Amino acid sequence: MKYTILLFTLILSAIACQKEIDQLEMEQENIEPEHHVLKDIIDHLPFDQFNDFTKAIFRNSAGVEISFLLSIDEEVVEKQSDEGIFTTNEITFKYENPVSFEIPNFSVVASFEYFEDLEFKEVIICNTIDFAFFVALPKLTIIPNQDYKNTILNEEFLWLGEEYMNVYSNILIQENDSDKTKIFYQSPVGIIGFVDNSNNSWVLDRFE
Hints:
Layout: H1 2-29, E1 34-36, H2 47-52, E2 55-59, E3 65-81, E4 84-96, E5 105-114, E6 120-130, E7 135-142, E8 151-159, E9 162-170, E10 182-186, E11 190-195, E12 201-207
Parallel strand pairs: 1-4
Antiparallel strand pairs: 2-3, 2-12, 3-4, 4-5, 5-6, 6-7, 8-9, 9-10, 10-11, 11-12
């Protein structure tokens, strides 16, 4: 009889503990993830160009022009850090070339990222778009006023006869000879030039 009572007591204790665990899990699930709002990099983004125009026209050294359609998307996304899930508004500026498959499409994505130094930082990531899988391939990561990995800041920049100030560009990775794409980004104009994978150079000529 004593063993039956003891067993019954242990069962009740286990049920009570499980209820506490379930309650704790429910409370954790109901906690809203921390939300990060873009602030510092807003002035580095090409809102005026994308709101006022629908096309960006680039030209090469021979005067050949190519047109990119401009559009903006904004959404709230979930991301993971060592501290758990967080959310941020993500703004994507799209440069879409519907004509030539030899010239890449581009996207400029502004968002918050969580870095190895355990800090949240606002970043601008310039991507090319892979036509086979329609995925973004990061080429240039910009943290304004900071150095970051393969990104350099050119204080004075001359490109196909055009002069620019404070232009960010990516350093090509020597081990990857198959990818020769370079992107040149100026705040807050956006992409002002690029080198395609065939080693052809292009510069922003105008917006329309």
